[in-house]
């Protein structure tokens, strides 16, 4: 099907409906990592172009195998730059995660850069998302606007102060709480500090009252239940790198704990 938007529409609709969605950050610029994660059972992946080396060439290469199979890959952009946002979406990204959205004006700019109807996105159906020219411009605009997710990161004191205005911006699908930067902005020492906890709870209350979905980064799956109780439904748990490291460390610890009489032969190997 030209454009392959149906899976991304379903993903966005699931998010807007408040279904529990689980994903992770990908920080390794490799299409092979994305292909593995696409077959892991996760609901989505976010390429971390803010804190990892993801230029548009790498992003395009990663989306080549994941877009055709309908696996949602979002991009956390490094800054609010419409040309880069448009390039990511033309290449087939499922949506954008926008850091440091501190005002309604920034939220408006983000939505405008991601959606044609909002008036700010450049139009061309010649890329992967448009089926390399197989879609009419009208169909492409309509399908893309219905499929693209826009998540605004709330991670600054200014953003918390302006949250009601941010929530009033049409087209913002989710508020993504970044506790690390929120901690820094509040002058706290840990993400579990009372000031951070209170700010997260305030974001949840205002966001839910405005009908916005809530997303949050967690380092461990055990944290999910606590935030679900606050109304969060989108969870980004760790990253490809943290998962790989944790599994390697666990494997090392388990094998190192074997006694010499355990039967592990010198020629044994891990697959």
Automatic annotation (TrEMBL):
InterPro entries: Aldolase/citrate-lyase_domain, HpcH-HpaI_aldolase, Pyrv/PenolPyrv_kinase-like_dom, Pyrv_kinase-like_dom_sf. SUPFAM superfamilies: Phosphoenolpyruvate/pyruvate domain. Transmembrane segments: none annotated. The keyword Metal-binding applies. It holds the Pfam family HpcH_HpaI. One of its GO terms (cellular component) is cytoplasm. Keywords: Lyase, Metal-binding. Residues 25-242 form the HpcH/HpaI aldolase/citrate lyase domain. GO terms for molecular function: aldehyde-lyase activity; metal ion binding. Belongs to the HpcH/HpaI aldolase family. This is Aldolase. It comes from Metarhizobium album. The lineage of its organism: Bacteria, Pseudomonadati, Pseudomonadota, Alphaproteobacteria, Hyphomicrobiales.
């Amino acid at each position: 099907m030209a454009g392959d938007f149906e899976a991304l529409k379903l993903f966005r609709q699931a998010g807007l409906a408040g279904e529990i969605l689980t994903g992770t950050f990908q920080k390794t610029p490799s299409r092979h990592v994305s292909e593995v994660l696409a077959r892991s059972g996760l609901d989505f992946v976010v390429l971390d172009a803010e804190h990892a080396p993801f230029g548009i060439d790498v992003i395009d290469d990663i989306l080549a195998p994941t877009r055709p199979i309908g696996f949602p890959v979002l991009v956390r952009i490094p800054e609010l730059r419409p040309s880069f946002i448009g390039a990511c979406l033309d290449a087939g990204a499922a949506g954008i995660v926008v850091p440091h959205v501190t005002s309604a004006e920034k939220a408006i700019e983000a939505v405008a850069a991601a959606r044609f109807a909002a008036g700010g996105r450049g139009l061309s159906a010649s890329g992967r998302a448009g089926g390399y020219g197989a879609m009419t411009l009208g169909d492409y605009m309509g399908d893309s606007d219905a499929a693209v997710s826009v998540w605004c990161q709330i991670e600054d004191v200014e953003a918390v102060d302006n949250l009601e205005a941010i929530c009033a911006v049409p087209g913002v699908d989710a508020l993504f709480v970044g506790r690390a930067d929120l901690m820094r902005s509040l002058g706290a020492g840990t993400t579990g500090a009372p000031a951070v906890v209170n700010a997260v709870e305030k974001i949840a209350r205002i966001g839910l009252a405005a009908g916005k979905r809530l997303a949050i980064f967690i380092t461990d799956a055990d944290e999910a239940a606590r935030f679900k109780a606050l109304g969060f439904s989108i969870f980004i748990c760790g990253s490809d790198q943290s998962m790989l490291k944790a599994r390697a460390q666990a494997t090392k610890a388990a094998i190192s704990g074997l006694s010499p009489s355990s039967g592990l032969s010198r020629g044994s190997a891990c697959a």
